[in-house]
Amino acid sequence: MCGRFSLGLVYGFSTRFGVPEVPELRPRYNIAPFQQVPIIVGGEAKSVKMMRWGLVPHWAKGEEFGLKLINVRSESVMEKPMFKPLLNRQRCLVPATGFYEWQRQGPRKRPYHVRVKEQEYFAMAGIYDTWSKEGKDLVTFSILTTAANATIAPIHDRMPVILRPEREAEWVSKEVLSADTLSEMFEPLPAASMDAYPVSDMVNDSHLDHPDMVVPQRMQQATLF
Prior knowledge:
By secondary structure, the chain is an alpha+beta fold. It has helices at about 15, 75-80, 85-90, 170, 180-185, 215-220, and strands at about 5, 30, 35-40, 45-55, 70-75, 90-95, 100-105, 110-115, 120-135, 135-145, 160, 160-165, 195-200.
């Protein structure tokens, strides 16, 4: 799964993703569910929309539904009718510089920060929807997950669907994608292309947001002496 992620850069963002400049964009190191996130959508041209993390389908009775759907299994999104309209027409890119996962070590869970090697930015596959009540529109998204590769498997059995850069435009197009195309996109990135390392427990507190959160724990310890 993916319960936290980072977007720790702002320079080069618009060039990397082919979108207009986003003046309010700032580095973030501990993005958590129910927070507002810059999300990339398609159309005649790609653009950035602020969305809340945690999918609230348009038919949901209340916005608290989003707590259930911060992630959606890619296998389920292909099989379940409730996700079909979103998978067909409302796909989005979730830009990131890394994501966090927790490994159980005895009585505690240790956080790890995961990056894609040689890529300052990458995009996770998402779906989104608009929920309306009493004239209020709430746009929300969920991150798709897939089976973990060999780098992530010792930490967790799932990981986000990370799109290869050459497939990103196709993902946010308004075209209906075939099952074969989707299956290809949902394959986990090769293990050798990813790096995971332990970080500070600071990330456990969703109210904190600091650059030190993405610093390897061994480096943080070294600075104490």
